[in-house]
Amino acid sequence: MDEVLAADGLRKSYGDVEALSGVSLSVAEGEVFGLIGPNGAGKTTLVRALTGTTAVDSGSAAILGRDPTEVDRQRLGVLPQEFRPAGRLTARELVAYYAGLYDDARDPDAVLDEVGLADAADTWYENLSGGQQRRACIALTLVNDPDVLFLDEPTTGIDPAGRRSLWGLVEGLAAGGTTVFLTSHSMEEIERLADRVGLLNAGELVTVGRPDDLVTEYGGESRLVVRTDGDADADAALESVSLPAALDATVSGDDITVHGVGPRDIGDVVAAFDDAGVVYESLVWKQPGLEEVYLSLTGEQFEAARPAAAAAVGGDR
Amino acid sequence: MSLAARVRSEFVASWHSFLRRRTAVFFTFFFPAIIVVIFGALVQTQPTGGGLFAEPKEYYIAGYLAVVVLFTPLSRVGSTIARHREGSRFEKLATTPLSRAEWLLAHSLVNVVVIGLAALLLLALSALVTGASIPLTPATLAIVPFVALGVTLFCGLGAVIGSVADSQDGVIAASNAIALPLLFLSETFVTPDLLPAWFVPALNLSPLTYFARGVRALTYSGGDWVTNLAVLAALAVAFFAAGTVAIPRTD
After folding, report:
1. Which end of chain B is more exposed for a tag (fewer CB within 10 A), N or C?
2. Looking at the keywords, is ATP-binding present (chain A) (predicted)?
3. Per residue in B62-86, pLDDT tens?
4. What is the value of pTM for the model shown?
5. Is the ipTM of this structure higher than 0.95?
6. Which residues of B lie closer than 8 Å to A, measured between beta carbons?
7. Cβ <8 Å between B91 and A93
8. Where are the domains of chain A?
9. Domain ranges, ordered by start, for chain B
10. H or E element: which one contains A62?
11. Please, what sign has the CA dihedral across residues A168, A171, A177, A181?
12. Interface mutation vs chain B, best among A5, A50, A51, A53, most B CBs within 10 Å
Protein backbone atom coordinates (compact mmCIF):
# COMPACT_ATOMS: atom_id res chain seq x y z
CA MET A 1 0.00 0.00 0.00
CA ASP A 2 1.08 3.58 -0.57
CA GLU A 3 2.71 5.54 2.19
CA VAL A 4 0.36 8.29 3.36
CA LEU A 5 2.22 9.66 6.37
CA ALA A 6 5.96 9.80 6.81
CA ALA A 7 8.25 11.29 9.43
CA ASP A 8 12.00 11.22 9.21
CA GLY A 9 14.15 12.25 12.16
CA LEU A 10 11.72 14.82 13.56
CA ARG A 11 13.24 16.92 16.31
CA LYS A 12 11.49 19.67 18.22
CA SER A 13 12.45 21.44 21.44
CA TYR A 14 10.62 23.94 23.59
CA GLY A 15 13.43 25.72 25.41
CA ASP A 16 15.42 23.08 27.23
CA VAL A 17 12.71 20.45 26.83
CA GLU A 18 13.13 18.16 23.86
CA ALA A 19 9.60 17.19 22.83
CA LEU A 20 10.66 15.06 19.86
CA SER A 21 14.04 13.37 19.67
CA GLY A 22 14.42 12.20 16.11
CA VAL A 23 11.10 10.48 15.48
CA SER A 24 10.72 8.49 12.27
CA LEU A 25 7.65 6.54 11.22
CA SER A 26 5.56 5.60 8.26
CA VAL A 27 1.81 5.02 7.96
CA ALA A 28 0.26 3.28 5.00
CA GLU A 29 -2.96 4.11 3.18
CA GLY A 30 -6.04 2.88 5.03
CA GLU A 31 -4.06 2.07 8.15
CA VAL A 32 -5.13 3.09 11.67
CA PHE A 33 -1.99 4.06 13.53
CA GLY A 34 -2.35 4.41 17.29
CA LEU A 35 0.07 6.54 19.27
CA ILE A 36 0.34 5.96 22.99
CA GLY A 37 2.60 7.40 25.64
CA PRO A 38 2.61 9.18 28.98
CA ASN A 39 1.52 12.79 29.41
CA GLY A 40 4.25 15.04 28.07
CA ALA A 41 5.74 12.28 25.92
CA GLY A 42 5.42 14.44 22.80
CA LYS A 43 2.29 12.93 21.22
CA THR A 44 0.60 16.24 20.49
CA THR A 45 3.86 17.74 19.23
CA LEU A 46 4.20 14.81 16.85
CA VAL A 47 0.64 15.34 15.60
CA ARG A 48 1.42 19.03 15.08
CA ALA A 49 4.64 18.23 13.27
CA LEU A 50 2.84 15.81 10.98
CA THR A 51 0.04 18.28 10.26
CA GLY A 52 2.36 21.24 9.74
CA THR A 53 1.00 23.23 12.67
CA THR A 54 4.36 23.40 14.36
CA ALA A 55 7.72 24.13 12.84
CA VAL A 56 10.18 21.35 13.66
CA ASP A 57 13.83 22.06 14.45
CA SER A 58 15.05 19.37 12.06
CA GLY A 59 13.82 16.36 10.16
CA SER A 60 10.95 16.19 7.73
CA ALA A 61 7.34 15.09 7.53
CA ALA A 62 5.08 14.35 4.61
CA ILE A 63 1.38 13.74 4.09
CA LEU A 64 0.34 12.12 0.85
CA GLY A 65 3.86 12.70 -0.42
CA ARG A 66 3.87 16.43 0.20
CA ASP A 67 5.06 18.76 2.88
CA PRO A 68 2.28 19.06 5.51
CA THR A 69 1.91 22.80 4.85
CA GLU A 70 1.44 22.21 1.14
CA VAL A 71 -0.91 19.25 1.18
CA ASP A 72 -4.43 19.64 -0.22
CA ARG A 73 -6.42 20.62 2.91
CA GLN A 74 -9.54 19.16 1.36
CA ARG A 75 -8.07 15.71 2.01
CA LEU A 76 -7.10 16.38 5.62
CA GLY A 77 -9.15 16.20 8.84
CA VAL A 78 -7.55 17.23 12.13
CA LEU A 79 -8.99 17.27 15.63
CA PRO A 80 -6.52 19.05 17.94
CA GLN A 81 -6.35 17.81 21.50
CA GLU A 82 -7.58 20.95 23.28
CA PHE A 83 -9.80 22.27 20.52
CA ARG A 84 -12.66 24.50 21.70
CA PRO A 85 -14.78 26.01 18.94
CA ALA A 86 -17.07 29.03 19.32
CA GLY A 87 -19.37 28.40 22.28
CA ARG A 88 -22.45 30.23 21.03
CA LEU A 89 -22.93 28.45 17.75
CA THR A 90 -25.20 25.45 17.62
CA ALA A 91 -23.75 22.07 16.74
CA ARG A 92 -25.37 22.37 13.30
CA GLU A 93 -24.00 25.88 12.75
CA LEU A 94 -20.54 24.78 13.77
CA VAL A 95 -20.51 21.86 11.36
CA ALA A 96 -22.00 24.03 8.62
CA TYR A 97 -19.33 26.66 9.29
CA TYR A 98 -16.52 24.18 8.75
CA ALA A 99 -18.35 22.66 5.81
CA GLY A 100 -18.36 26.12 4.24
CA LEU A 101 -14.56 26.20 4.30
CA TYR A 102 -14.29 23.31 1.85
CA ASP A 103 -15.13 23.13 -1.83
CA ASP A 104 -16.77 19.78 -1.36
CA ALA A 105 -18.33 18.98 2.00
CA ARG A 106 -20.87 16.57 3.37
CA ASP A 107 -24.33 17.47 4.59
CA PRO A 108 -23.89 18.77 8.17
CA ASP A 109 -27.04 17.01 9.40
CA ALA A 110 -25.81 13.68 8.07
CA VAL A 111 -22.50 14.10 9.87
CA LEU A 112 -24.23 15.09 13.10
CA ASP A 113 -26.44 12.05 12.80
CA GLU A 114 -23.38 9.88 12.28
CA VAL A 115 -21.78 11.04 15.54
CA GLY A 116 -25.05 10.75 17.44
CA LEU A 117 -25.77 14.44 17.80
CA ALA A 118 -28.86 14.76 15.64
CA ASP A 119 -31.05 15.46 18.67
CA ALA A 120 -28.73 18.18 19.95
CA ALA A 121 -28.11 19.85 16.59
CA ASP A 122 -29.77 23.09 17.66
CA THR A 123 -28.04 23.36 21.02
CA TRP A 124 -25.26 25.89 21.50
CA TYR A 125 -21.88 24.21 21.76
CA GLU A 126 -21.29 25.67 25.24
CA ASN A 127 -24.53 24.07 26.46
CA LEU A 128 -23.64 20.57 25.24
CA SER A 129 -22.27 18.04 27.72
CA GLY A 130 -18.55 17.32 27.63
CA GLY A 131 -19.06 14.16 25.63
CA GLN A 132 -21.43 15.87 23.21
CA GLN A 133 -18.91 18.67 22.73
CA ARG A 134 -16.24 16.18 21.77
CA ARG A 135 -18.64 14.50 19.35
CA ALA A 136 -19.40 17.87 17.76
CA CYS A 137 -15.67 18.41 17.34
CA ILE A 138 -15.35 15.04 15.66
CA ALA A 139 -18.29 15.90 13.40
CA LEU A 140 -16.67 19.06 12.14
CA THR A 141 -13.46 17.12 11.55
CA LEU A 142 -15.31 14.64 9.35
CA VAL A 143 -17.36 17.15 7.40
CA ASN A 144 -14.93 17.29 4.46
CA ASP A 145 -14.78 13.48 4.21
CA PRO A 146 -10.99 13.46 4.69
CA ASP A 147 -8.61 10.86 3.30
CA VAL A 148 -6.26 11.36 6.24
CA LEU A 149 -7.64 11.85 9.70
CA PHE A 150 -5.74 12.97 12.79
CA LEU A 151 -7.58 12.45 16.06
CA ASP A 152 -5.70 13.67 19.14
CA GLU A 153 -7.36 12.01 22.12
CA PRO A 154 -10.79 12.07 20.49
CA THR A 155 -12.77 10.22 23.14
CA THR A 156 -11.62 12.12 26.21
CA GLY A 157 -14.71 12.93 28.25
CA ILE A 158 -17.07 10.72 26.26
CA ASP A 159 -19.13 8.13 28.12
CA PRO A 160 -18.60 4.42 27.39
CA ALA A 161 -21.57 4.11 25.04
CA GLY A 162 -20.56 7.19 23.11
CA ARG A 163 -16.98 5.96 22.96
CA ARG A 164 -18.02 2.66 21.46
CA SER A 165 -20.21 4.46 18.98
CA LEU A 166 -17.25 6.56 17.87
CA TRP A 167 -15.03 3.52 17.69
CA GLY A 168 -17.51 2.04 15.27
CA LEU A 169 -17.35 5.26 13.30
CA VAL A 170 -13.56 5.14 13.07
CA GLU A 171 -13.68 1.47 12.12
CA GLY A 172 -16.12 2.33 9.35
CA LEU A 173 -13.89 5.13 8.08
CA ALA A 174 -10.85 2.85 8.13
CA ALA A 175 -12.79 0.17 6.28
CA GLY A 176 -13.60 2.79 3.66
CA GLY A 177 -9.90 3.51 3.15
CA THR A 178 -9.38 6.53 5.42
CA THR A 179 -5.95 6.65 7.01
CA VAL A 180 -6.27 7.44 10.72
CA PHE A 181 -3.59 8.70 13.08
CA LEU A 182 -4.99 8.34 16.57
CA THR A 183 -3.55 9.29 19.94
CA SER A 184 -5.15 8.07 23.12
CA HIS A 185 -4.59 7.18 26.75
CA SER A 186 -7.17 4.41 26.42
CA MET A 187 -5.36 1.16 25.75
CA GLU A 188 -8.73 -0.47 25.10
CA GLU A 189 -9.38 2.06 22.36
CA ILE A 190 -5.99 1.60 20.75
CA GLU A 191 -6.15 -2.20 20.98
CA ARG A 192 -9.52 -2.21 19.30
CA LEU A 193 -8.86 0.34 16.57
CA ALA A 194 -5.18 0.40 15.71
CA ASP A 195 -3.58 -1.76 13.06
CA ARG A 196 -0.20 -0.68 14.38
CA VAL A 197 0.82 1.08 17.57
CA GLY A 198 3.69 3.40 18.34
CA LEU A 199 4.79 4.11 21.88
CA LEU A 200 6.28 7.53 22.42
CA ASN A 201 8.19 8.15 25.63
CA ALA A 202 10.16 11.32 26.41
CA GLY A 203 10.12 12.32 22.75
CA GLU A 204 11.41 9.00 21.47
CA LEU A 205 9.43 6.44 19.55
CA VAL A 206 10.31 3.47 21.71
CA THR A 207 8.59 0.82 19.64
CA VAL A 208 6.20 0.37 16.73
CA GLY A 209 4.32 -2.76 15.86
CA ARG A 210 1.05 -4.60 15.63
CA PRO A 211 -0.73 -4.70 18.99
CA ASP A 212 -0.53 -8.50 19.20
CA ASP A 213 3.15 -8.51 18.39
CA LEU A 214 3.89 -5.85 20.98
CA VAL A 215 1.95 -7.74 23.62
CA THR A 216 3.82 -10.92 22.78
CA GLU A 217 7.16 -9.18 22.90
CA TYR A 218 6.72 -6.84 25.85
CA GLY A 219 3.49 -7.70 27.61
CA GLY A 220 4.80 -10.46 29.83
CA GLU A 221 2.80 -13.54 30.68
CA SER A 222 -0.77 -14.20 31.69
CA ARG A 223 -1.32 -14.73 35.40
CA LEU A 224 -3.85 -15.82 37.95
CA VAL A 225 -4.32 -13.61 40.99
CA VAL A 226 -5.72 -15.43 44.01
CA ARG A 227 -6.98 -13.14 46.77
CA THR A 228 -6.80 -15.09 49.99
CA ASP A 229 -9.06 -14.69 53.00
CA GLY A 230 -7.81 -11.71 54.94
CA ASP A 231 -7.38 -13.84 58.07
CA ALA A 232 -5.03 -16.28 56.35
CA ASP A 233 -1.28 -15.93 55.97
CA ALA A 234 -0.79 -15.75 52.21
CA ASP A 235 2.85 -16.82 52.43
CA ALA A 236 1.94 -19.87 54.47
CA ALA A 237 -0.94 -20.63 52.16
CA LEU A 238 1.34 -20.56 49.13
CA GLU A 239 3.84 -22.85 50.87
CA SER A 240 1.10 -25.43 51.20
CA VAL A 241 0.14 -25.36 47.52
CA SER A 242 1.72 -27.77 45.04
CA LEU A 243 1.63 -25.76 41.82
CA PRO A 244 1.93 -27.48 38.46
CA ALA A 245 5.50 -27.66 37.23
CA ALA A 246 6.96 -24.61 35.50
CA LEU A 247 4.64 -22.23 37.29
CA ASP A 248 5.81 -19.93 40.02
CA ALA A 249 4.11 -17.42 42.23
CA THR A 250 4.66 -14.25 44.23
CA VAL A 251 2.84 -12.89 47.26
CA SER A 252 1.78 -9.30 47.75
CA GLY A 253 -0.43 -8.61 50.76
CA ASP A 254 -3.40 -10.98 50.55
CA ASP A 255 -2.79 -11.68 46.86
CA ILE A 256 -0.98 -14.68 45.49
CA THR A 257 -0.07 -14.14 41.85
CA VAL A 258 0.68 -17.28 39.86
CA HIS A 259 2.68 -16.36 36.78
CA GLY A 260 2.58 -17.92 33.35
CA VAL A 261 -0.89 -19.39 33.75
CA GLY A 262 -2.36 -20.10 30.35
CA PRO A 263 -6.10 -20.67 29.83
CA ARG A 264 -5.65 -24.44 30.01
CA ASP A 265 -3.66 -24.19 33.27
CA ILE A 266 -6.38 -22.39 35.21
CA GLY A 267 -8.23 -25.54 36.26
CA ASP A 268 -5.07 -27.22 37.53
CA VAL A 269 -4.00 -24.16 39.50
CA VAL A 270 -7.42 -23.76 41.13
CA ALA A 271 -7.45 -27.47 41.95
CA ALA A 272 -4.03 -27.13 43.59
CA PHE A 273 -5.32 -24.34 45.83
CA ASP A 274 -8.47 -26.34 46.64
CA ASP A 275 -6.45 -29.44 47.41
CA ALA A 276 -4.30 -27.43 49.81
CA GLY A 277 -7.43 -26.11 51.52
CA VAL A 278 -6.56 -22.49 50.83
CA VAL A 279 -9.54 -20.21 51.42
CA TYR A 280 -9.76 -17.46 48.82
CA GLU A 281 -12.11 -14.56 48.18
CA SER A 282 -11.60 -14.19 44.45
CA LEU A 283 -9.73 -15.49 41.45
CA VAL A 284 -8.80 -13.16 38.59
CA TRP A 285 -7.07 -14.34 35.45
CA LYS A 286 -5.26 -11.56 33.62
CA GLN A 287 -4.03 -11.69 30.07
CA PRO A 288 -1.31 -9.23 29.09
CA GLY A 289 -2.42 -6.38 26.88
CA LEU A 290 -1.20 -3.05 25.62
CA GLU A 291 -1.42 -1.67 29.13
CA GLU A 292 1.27 -4.11 30.22
CA VAL A 293 3.32 -3.15 27.15
CA TYR A 294 2.91 0.51 28.07
CA LEU A 295 3.84 -0.06 31.69
CA SER A 296 6.74 -2.28 30.78
CA LEU A 297 8.28 0.14 28.29
CA THR A 298 7.64 3.38 30.11
CA GLY A 299 8.33 2.05 33.60
CA GLU A 300 5.26 3.89 34.82
CA GLN A 301 3.54 2.26 37.83
CA PHE A 302 5.15 -1.01 36.92
CA GLU A 303 6.87 -1.34 40.25
CA ALA A 304 3.60 -0.52 42.00
CA ALA A 305 1.89 -3.30 40.09
CA ARG A 306 4.45 -5.80 41.27
CA PRO A 307 5.84 -4.53 44.58
CA ALA A 308 9.52 -5.09 45.12
CA ALA A 309 8.70 -6.36 48.58
CA ALA A 310 6.68 -9.23 47.15
CA ALA A 311 8.10 -12.56 48.19
CA ALA A 312 9.18 -14.84 45.39
CA VAL A 313 8.21 -18.45 45.77
CA GLY A 314 8.96 -21.36 43.47
CA GLY A 315 11.77 -19.84 41.48
CA ASP A 316 13.49 -16.65 40.47
CA ARG A 317 11.48 -14.02 38.64
CA MET B 1 -15.71 31.47 -5.92
CA SER B 2 -14.49 29.17 -3.17
CA LEU B 3 -12.64 32.09 -1.60
CA ALA B 4 -15.93 33.96 -1.38
CA ALA B 5 -17.62 30.90 0.10
CA ARG B 6 -14.92 30.50 2.76
CA VAL B 7 -15.03 34.17 3.71
CA ARG B 8 -18.82 34.02 3.83
CA SER B 9 -18.73 30.98 6.09
CA GLU B 10 -16.26 32.62 8.48
CA PHE B 11 -18.28 35.85 8.35
CA VAL B 12 -21.57 34.13 9.19
CA ALA B 13 -20.04 32.19 12.09
CA SER B 14 -18.37 35.30 13.49
CA TRP B 15 -21.51 37.39 13.03
CA HIS B 16 -23.70 34.87 14.87
CA SER B 17 -21.13 34.54 17.64
CA PHE B 18 -21.11 38.31 18.09
CA LEU B 19 -24.89 38.73 18.09
CA ARG B 20 -25.23 36.05 20.78
CA ARG B 21 -22.91 37.81 23.20
CA ARG B 22 -25.46 40.24 24.50
CA THR B 23 -23.06 42.19 26.68
CA ALA B 24 -20.72 42.73 23.74
CA VAL B 25 -23.59 43.86 21.52
CA PHE B 26 -24.98 46.22 24.15
CA PHE B 27 -21.70 47.92 24.92
CA THR B 28 -20.67 48.08 21.27
CA PHE B 29 -23.64 50.35 20.65
CA PHE B 30 -23.75 51.93 24.11
CA PHE B 31 -20.17 53.11 23.65
CA PRO B 32 -20.83 55.64 20.84
CA ALA B 33 -24.02 56.74 22.56
CA ILE B 34 -22.27 57.55 25.82
CA ILE B 35 -19.46 59.31 23.95
CA VAL B 36 -21.93 61.66 22.27
CA VAL B 37 -23.89 62.21 25.48
CA ILE B 38 -20.77 63.03 27.51
CA PHE B 39 -18.97 65.23 25.01
CA GLY B 40 -21.90 66.56 23.06
CA ALA B 41 -24.49 67.12 25.79
CA LEU B 42 -22.63 67.35 29.10
CA VAL B 43 -19.29 68.93 28.24
CA GLN B 44 -20.64 70.78 25.21
CA THR B 45 -18.56 72.82 22.86
CA GLN B 46 -17.49 76.34 23.79
CA PRO B 47 -16.98 78.14 20.48
CA THR B 48 -16.20 81.43 22.16
CA GLY B 49 -13.79 80.11 24.75
CA GLY B 50 -10.42 78.41 24.64
CA GLY B 51 -9.06 74.96 25.44
CA LEU B 52 -10.75 71.70 24.63
CA PHE B 53 -14.10 71.67 22.84
CA ALA B 54 -13.71 75.23 21.71
CA GLU B 55 -14.62 74.42 18.13
CA PRO B 56 -18.12 74.28 16.66
CA LYS B 57 -19.96 71.06 17.42
CA GLU B 58 -19.69 69.81 13.83
CA TYR B 59 -15.91 69.80 14.18
CA TYR B 60 -16.10 66.89 16.61
CA ILE B 61 -18.25 64.55 14.52
CA ALA B 62 -15.08 63.13 12.95
CA GLY B 63 -13.73 62.57 16.48
CA TYR B 64 -16.86 60.73 17.61
CA LEU B 65 -16.62 58.44 14.57
CA ALA B 66 -12.92 57.97 15.19
CA VAL B 67 -13.67 56.61 18.66
CA VAL B 68 -15.69 53.66 17.35
CA VAL B 69 -13.51 53.11 14.30
CA LEU B 70 -10.45 52.90 16.52
CA PHE B 71 -11.47 51.18 19.74
CA THR B 72 -13.98 48.57 18.66
CA PRO B 73 -12.00 46.72 15.96
CA LEU B 74 -8.78 46.97 17.90
CA SER B 75 -10.18 45.26 20.98
CA ARG B 76 -12.59 42.93 19.14
CA VAL B 77 -10.10 41.43 16.71
CA GLY B 78 -7.36 41.35 19.32
CA SER B 79 -9.44 39.46 21.84
CA THR B 80 -10.93 37.21 19.13
CA ILE B 81 -7.43 36.13 18.20
CA ALA B 82 -6.54 35.50 21.85
CA ARG B 83 -9.73 33.42 22.23
CA HIS B 84 -9.01 31.48 19.05
CA ARG B 85 -5.48 30.75 20.17
CA GLU B 86 -6.57 29.58 23.62
CA GLY B 87 -9.07 27.20 22.02
CA SER B 88 -6.56 25.84 19.46
CA ARG B 89 -8.82 27.20 16.73
CA PHE B 90 -5.97 28.48 14.59
CA GLU B 91 -4.36 25.05 14.85
CA LYS B 92 -7.55 23.64 13.43
CA LEU B 93 -8.01 26.36 10.81
CA ALA B 94 -4.42 25.90 9.62
CA THR B 95 -5.45 22.45 8.45
CA THR B 96 -8.45 23.76 6.47
CA PRO B 97 -8.43 25.66 3.15
CA LEU B 98 -9.17 28.97 4.96
CA SER B 99 -6.13 31.25 4.70
CA ARG B 100 -5.14 33.81 7.30
CA ALA B 101 -5.95 36.65 4.91
CA GLU B 102 -9.44 35.21 4.35
CA TRP B 103 -9.93 34.87 8.11
CA LEU B 104 -8.94 38.49 8.71
CA LEU B 105 -11.03 39.67 5.77
CA ALA B 106 -14.12 37.95 7.17
CA HIS B 107 -13.60 39.41 10.63
CA SER B 108 -12.88 42.84 9.16
CA LEU B 109 -16.17 42.66 7.26
CA VAL B 110 -18.04 41.76 10.44
CA ASN B 111 -16.47 44.76 12.11
CA VAL B 112 -17.29 47.00 9.15
CA VAL B 113 -20.95 46.05 9.50
CA VAL B 114 -20.98 46.38 13.30
CA ILE B 115 -19.11 49.68 13.31
CA GLY B 116 -21.04 50.92 10.32
CA LEU B 117 -24.24 50.49 12.34
CA ALA B 118 -22.61 52.10 15.36
CA ALA B 119 -21.47 55.00 13.17
CA LEU B 120 -25.01 55.52 11.89
CA LEU B 121 -26.27 55.56 15.46
CA LEU B 122 -23.56 57.99 16.38
CA LEU B 123 -24.33 60.36 13.53
CA ALA B 124 -28.03 60.29 14.37
CA LEU B 125 -27.32 60.96 18.04
CA SER B 126 -24.93 63.76 17.16
CA ALA B 127 -27.65 65.46 15.20
CA LEU B 128 -30.31 64.84 17.85
CA VAL B 129 -28.35 65.49 21.03
CA THR B 130 -25.93 68.22 19.97
CA GLY B 131 -27.94 69.71 17.15
CA ALA B 132 -25.00 69.34 14.80
CA SER B 133 -25.93 69.66 11.15
CA ILE B 134 -24.32 67.23 8.76
CA PRO B 135 -24.26 68.22 5.10
CA LEU B 136 -26.16 65.68 3.01
CA THR B 137 -24.53 65.64 -0.39
CA PRO B 138 -23.38 62.80 -2.63
CA ALA B 139 -19.90 63.34 -1.25
CA THR B 140 -21.19 62.59 2.26
CA LEU B 141 -21.44 58.96 1.17
CA ALA B 142 -17.65 58.93 1.12
CA ILE B 143 -17.90 58.53 4.91
CA VAL B 144 -18.72 54.89 4.16
CA PRO B 145 -15.33 54.04 2.60
CA PHE B 146 -13.63 56.08 5.31
CA VAL B 147 -15.29 53.95 7.99
CA ALA B 148 -14.67 50.72 6.08
CA LEU B 149 -11.01 51.48 5.50
CA GLY B 150 -10.49 52.78 9.03
CA VAL B 151 -12.05 49.64 10.47
CA THR B 152 -9.96 47.41 8.20
CA LEU B 153 -6.83 49.26 9.23
CA PHE B 154 -7.47 48.85 12.94
CA CYS B 155 -8.56 45.23 12.47
CA GLY B 156 -5.09 44.66 11.04
CA LEU B 157 -3.50 46.41 14.01
CA GLY B 158 -5.78 44.45 16.35
CA ALA B 159 -4.58 41.22 14.72
CA VAL B 160 -0.99 42.23 15.38
CA ILE B 161 -1.78 43.04 19.02
CA GLY B 162 -3.78 39.84 19.47
CA SER B 163 -0.95 37.78 18.06
CA VAL B 164 1.75 39.42 20.15
CA ALA B 165 -0.18 39.56 23.44
CA ASP B 166 -0.22 36.27 25.33
CA SER B 167 -3.75 36.55 26.76
CA GLN B 168 -7.07 38.36 26.43
CA ASP B 169 -6.09 40.56 29.39
CA GLY B 170 -2.90 41.44 27.57
CA VAL B 171 -4.86 42.36 24.45
CA ILE B 172 -7.12 44.73 26.38
CA ALA B 173 -4.20 46.40 28.14
CA ALA B 174 -2.19 46.78 24.94
CA SER B 175 -5.22 48.03 22.98
CA ASN B 176 -5.92 50.73 25.54
CA ALA B 177 -2.28 51.76 25.71
CA ILE B 178 -2.16 52.18 21.93
CA ALA B 179 -5.66 53.55 21.30
CA LEU B 180 -5.80 56.33 23.88
CA PRO B 181 -2.74 58.25 22.67
CA LEU B 182 -3.84 57.71 19.08
CA LEU B 183 -7.30 59.05 19.82
CA PHE B 184 -6.11 62.31 21.32
CA LEU B 185 -3.15 62.88 19.03
CA SER B 186 -4.88 62.47 15.68
CA GLU B 187 -6.74 65.75 15.18
CA THR B 188 -9.90 64.26 16.62
CA PHE B 189 -10.76 66.17 19.79
CA VAL B 190 -7.49 68.03 20.37
CA THR B 191 -6.81 70.62 17.69
CA PRO B 192 -3.24 70.98 16.46
CA ASP B 193 -2.95 74.51 17.85
CA LEU B 194 -3.31 73.11 21.39
CA LEU B 195 -0.16 71.03 20.90
CA PRO B 196 3.46 72.22 20.96
CA ALA B 197 4.61 73.27 17.52
CA TRP B 198 7.43 70.69 17.53
CA PHE B 199 4.90 67.91 18.05
CA VAL B 200 2.45 68.85 15.31
CA PRO B 201 4.35 67.05 12.49
CA ALA B 202 4.06 63.87 14.55
CA LEU B 203 0.29 63.95 13.99
CA ASN B 204 1.00 62.79 10.45
CA LEU B 205 2.35 59.53 11.83
CA SER B 206 -1.01 58.49 13.21
CA PRO B 207 -3.22 56.65 10.70
CA LEU B 208 -6.26 57.97 12.54
CA THR B 209 -5.26 61.51 11.56
CA TYR B 210 -6.12 60.81 7.92
CA PHE B 211 -9.48 59.38 8.94
CA ALA B 212 -10.26 62.44 11.09
CA ARG B 213 -9.10 64.94 8.48
CA GLY B 214 -11.02 63.24 5.67
CA VAL B 215 -14.25 62.78 7.59
CA ARG B 216 -14.04 66.34 8.90
CA ALA B 217 -13.67 67.61 5.35
CA LEU B 218 -16.88 65.75 4.51
CA THR B 219 -18.90 66.69 7.58
CA TYR B 220 -17.68 70.15 8.53
CA SER B 221 -14.85 72.04 6.94
CA GLY B 222 -14.97 70.92 3.34
CA GLY B 223 -11.76 70.61 1.37
CA ASP B 224 -9.64 67.73 0.11
CA TRP B 225 -10.88 64.45 1.44
CA VAL B 226 -9.72 62.34 -1.49
CA THR B 227 -6.04 62.56 -0.56
CA ASN B 228 -6.82 61.51 3.00
CA LEU B 229 -8.91 58.62 1.70
CA ALA B 230 -6.05 57.51 -0.54
CA VAL B 231 -3.55 57.62 2.33
CA LEU B 232 -5.99 55.78 4.58
CA ALA B 233 -6.50 53.13 1.88
CA ALA B 234 -2.77 52.60 1.52
CA LEU B 235 -2.35 52.34 5.29
CA ALA B 236 -5.31 49.96 5.51
CA VAL B 237 -3.68 47.64 2.97
CA ALA B 238 -0.39 47.77 4.87
CA PHE B 239 -1.94 47.11 8.29
CA PHE B 240 -4.16 44.37 6.87
CA ALA B 241 -1.09 42.69 5.40
CA ALA B 242 0.78 43.03 8.69
CA GLY B 243 -2.20 41.57 10.56
CA THR B 244 -2.41 38.66 8.12
CA VAL B 245 1.24 37.80 8.62
CA ALA B 246 0.93 38.14 12.40
CA ILE B 247 -2.03 35.76 12.80
CA PRO B 248 -0.73 32.53 14.33
CA ARG B 249 -0.30 29.65 11.91
CA THR B 250 1.56 27.30 14.19
CA ASP B 251 1.78 26.83 17.94
Report:
1. N
2. yes
3. 999 999 999 999 999 999 999 999 8
4. 0.87
5. no
6. 2, 5-6, 8-10, 12-13, 16-17, 20-21, 86-89, 91-98, 249-251
7. no
8. 3-209, 220-313
9. 2-41+51-246
10. strand A58-63
11. positive
12. A53
